């Protein structure tokens, strides 16, 4: 189980991201059931070796706020409390539309882990 924080009317969580044998804790990830995929600013995962490289395929991410170009990267996993994904593809892009957002925890993670979002107790946990 992990707490959900409401900031500016939006739900946020903290997560540990795993890649290349390293891990990184990231706070203020937007919990977004309307986002198909997890997404991070391009430089957010550099400390664990996830970065833009020559030859990366550029994709277009489309959402309510418009569209943005991203690069997809496969990482080892993401953990939020007792929810731990297996390998997962994340998107790296500008994500500069909300200053307090350090990334997006999307539906791909939520489905893979069987997450239960409890808005009465403001927590996220295994189902």
List key phrases describing it.
Cathepsin D, subunit A, domain 1; 6% helix; 127 residues; globular
Folded structure, characterized:
The protein has about 130 residues and is mainly beta. The chain has one domain (about 1-125): Beta Barrel (Cathepsin D, subunit A, domain 1), CATH 2.40.70. The chain has one helix spanning about 105-115, and strands at about 1-5, 5, 10-20, 20-30, 40, 60-65, 65-75, 75-80, 85, 90-95, 105, 115-120, 125. The strands form three sheets. Strands 2, 3, 4, 8, 9 and 11 form a six-stranded mixed beta sheet that branches. It has a four-stranded mixed beta sheet with strand order 5-10-7-6. The longest helix has 7 residues, at about 105-115. The termini are close together.
Topology:
Layout: E1 2-3, E2 5-7, E3 10-19, E4 22-31, E5 38-41, E6 58-63, E7 66-75, E8 77-80, E9 83-84, E10 88-93, E11 103-105, H1 107-113, E12 115-118, E13 123-126
Parallel strand pairs: 4-11, 5-10
Antiparallel strand pairs: 1-13, 2-3, 3-4, 3-8, 6-7, 7-10, 8-9, 12-13
Order of helices and strands: EEEEEEEEEEEHEE
| Oligomer designation | single chain
Structural class: mainly beta
Q: Whole-number radius of gyration?
A: 14 Å
* Overall number of structural domains: 1
């Amino acid at each position: 189980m992990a707490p959900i924080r409401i900031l500016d009317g939006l739900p946020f969580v903290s997560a540990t991201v795993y890649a290349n044998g390293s891990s990184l804790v990231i706070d203020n990830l937007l919990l977004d059931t309307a986002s198909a995929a997890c997404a991070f600013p391009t430089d957010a995962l550099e400390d664990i070796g996830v970065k833009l490289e020559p030859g990366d395929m550029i994709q277009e991410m489309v959402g309510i706020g418009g569209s943005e170009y991203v690069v997809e990267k496969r990482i080892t996993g993401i953990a939020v409390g007792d929810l731990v994904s297996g390998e997962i593809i994340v998107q790296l892009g500008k994500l500069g539309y909300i200053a307090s957002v350090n990334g997006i925890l999307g539906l791909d993670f939520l489905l893979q882990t069987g997450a239960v979002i409890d808005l009465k107790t403001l927590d996220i946990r295994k189902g």
